[in-house]
Design goal:
Length: about 80
């Protein structure tokens, strides 16, 4: 399942640098957004989503509109990183 950044975001920027897939960028209306096509919840790179670990506002949550299994997330990571 991809992650999303909710309205509690303080625009601290720490999550952007932590994402191994470059899935986080500035958005319209919401300060930052996560591209569900690039978000693997860090499967393939780390044991836990790094953006959630560093977020001081705890505003990064599961996106119920993009459910995925661990296997799907791993396959997505492998496709992104060859």
């Amino acid at each position: 399942m991809a992650l999303i950044i909710n309205d509690d975001c303080t625009a601290c920027d720490v999550c952007v640098l932590e994402c191994p897939n470059d899935a986080i960028s500035e958005g319209d209306g919401i300060l930052y957004v996560i591209d569900p096509d690039n978000c693997t919840e860090c499967v393939g790179a780390h044991d836990e989503p790094q953006c959630q670990l560093v977020c001081p506002a705890e505003c990064i949550v599961n996106d119920p509109n993009h459910p995925e299994t661990q296997e799907q997330l791993q396959a997505k990571y492998e496709a992104l990183h060859g």
